[in-house]
Design a protein that fits this description.
homotetramer, mainly alpha, Arc Repressor Mutant, subunit A, 11 helices, 0% strand, elongated, DNA-binding, Tet_transcr_reg_TetR-rel_C_sf (chains A, B, C, D), HTH-type_TetR-like_transc_reg (chains A, B, C, D), transcription (chains A, B, C, D)
DNA sequence: TATGAATGAGCGTTCATTCAT
DNA sequence: GATGAATGAACGCTCATTCAT
């Protein structure tokens, strides 16, 4: 997007692009408030354009959904790839959980994106869940391989748990609370150290 | 239909009550299949009564919603009251989580009831969340008081976590998986034993 | 329809039936004026009922079409069956052509019914053309068998010709003119008598 | 596109005329396939120009319609003028009927043009019918004057009959069939010879 | 001048709710 | 009380037409 501004050969797109962005922002807002049920009329009105303009940019509701949510999902995928480089796999997994919670709590359309990933059966829902599942797998597998994570809880289980923690929120500023909950859950996932080793470490601290 | 006109004098309420029950059952079924989007015409048809009869019992869509979901929530409340009698507060809490997961996985309208408790802003949503919050509180407080549960995670946090675990499911038969996840989460909530005590217990087992 | 009035067990249909009739009349009028293109909104408005009522009676445009036009077509079919009893097959065919022209010129929805029979590909169009084709066949076959009608022009050719004569009209009162045209066409279809016989008949007259 | 800006000064009309022709051809094709219902966007796309260009040439849908169909009608008018030179007026009339049928069966937009001439009330419909009426008159009058044609059937009657024969067709390749039907009709229009004369001619043949 | 993005009135359709029977 | 026909606001979507580039 940024790059295209420099390749200024196609000019008559300035306002069109602006409308597209306005529509995406409006859709994110409307869908967030209505749980993805908002009318396209409302999206167009919120964006300040005619309904025809919305349909020119996104010929189906699905297309708008996809445009709105794909970018959100891809950001989580990117985060997972970064953390996969980390040396400590359990720490990387924990950072991913924290990162997810942080992004979902902060970014506008992310909650709706996750809700759709869980609930929907449309193309973007399948894409979203598949992408997130792979992202989680990328960090979960090494963690299990390290022997420090219970192997009987799958990556998808963790993914759905954290998503559930983010979605099942009634209050407003929940980032801290949910981060703590994710930590609690991850603590539960850790293979208990042999007491001897725990005792040894306890002595070292004390 | 014609025949019932003659019996209508002898039992003026029996039919009405039966219709009410048929409508509630039908609504639970229809709302479950459609994610709460089903038409009232479909509910009436499923119940085998006219749309007018539906409206006599439930003057708005909202009212039907409320009646359907209140009973689901009340069953969870009942479970909480039973378990509050239990001697071991942590075990009681664990049983409540298991019971919730079991009921939600099994009972027809429960998923939708929880979704509304979390998401909605209507009367029934407020009632549902308040009721469930109190139910969880009833078991959480003694468990924290026993010193075996981390005090920095609230009853509402636990409630929302378990609800989230139930809602964020794409596959079909998830009772086992989510019960295990709830256990993992509860494990994470347990205050770690002093290593010495753990060692002692370890010896006892071996 | 007439008979059902006597079987007066189902009462609550009085106004409903009236609405149905109003809708059929309105549809015939609107479709006639617009060549079958009129909006359903206009039909409902013309009938003086809400659009929802139209949809309750006729859930698709096709269903309304069918209800409007089937009765028109069936009247032509009835006429054909009556005339099939006639002794003189050519006279019967001529009477059928006159009858068609007369009915089409007089009855409200008939022109549109024929237009659809010719033009449409929907169910009612197929039904209409098939029915009319059989009706014409019923009278054409004996006429050809009598040896007095050219055998190289099919019943469908005649049918489409007469329909065409009725449809291709710009002026208002065309019954007389088209009847004469149908006669001219039928004259052209007659196998020329052997001159000797013609001469003989000529003498008889003179 | 960019290049043409430099050549636009040298030939200001060539492109424009070419576009006009492309649009007319595209419109004829699109209207034929859709029964006159095609969108202007589709016409422009088929022509390979922008919708704005279409509107520059034809400021309303009606104007495009008119331009498309006028040329079809004018071809029939030309045919009539040619045949008016013929010596045998009845043969000329027959040739005109054959020619009409042939052109309508073959030429792309002709069926639609006739349908509009008959059905429409717009400018082009009036022009079309008037033109065709005059064309038919030109050939009909001498034929009637020759005494060989029934005088009680008007030129407009013949015109509408032949148009009707062409329009009322459900099958595909109908040129032969309709040509025969037109002949039958014309046969019916011929003034019957006096039997004596027929007998004389019969003898001459035998 | 050519382009195609923007507009919005209008159509087909659904469905919560009302009301006559 | 029960029924289901009637209503009409509102939604999804199309497309003729306008206008900025």
């Amino acid at each position: 997007m940024e790059r295209e501004l420099t390749t200024a050969i196609r000019r008559p797109r300035a306002d069109s692009l602006r409308n597209r962005e306005k529509l995406l922002a409006a859709a994110a807002a409307v869908f967030r408030e209505t749980g993805g049920q908002g009318t396209l009329e409302a999206v167009a009105r919120t964006a300040g354009v005619g309904i025809g303009t919305l349909y020119r940019h996104f010929p189906t509701r699905e297309a708008l959904f996809e445009a709105v949510y794909r970018r959100e999902i891809d950001q989580l995928d990117d985060l997972s790839r970064e953390l996969a480089e980390d040396d400590d796999p359990v720490a990387a997994l924990r950072r991913f959980l924290h990162g997810m919670v942080g992004m979902v709590a902060t970014k506008k359309g992310m909650v709706a994106a996750l809700a759709i990933a869980i609930d929907g059966s449309c193309d973007i829902a399948v894409y979203s869940f598949t992408t997130l599942s792979a992202a989680m797998q990328r960090l979960h597998e090494p963690a299990v391989a390290s022997g420090r994570l219970r192997p009987d809880v799958s990556a998808d289980d963790i993914l759905q748990t954290v998503i559930g923690m983010c979605l099942a929120r009634r209050e407003d500023r929940w980032e801290g609370a949910v981060t703590r909950l994710a930590d609690v859950f991850l603590d539960g996932l850790l293979v208990p150290e042999a007491p001897a080793m725990a005792l040894r470490r306890e002595s070292a601290r004390g």
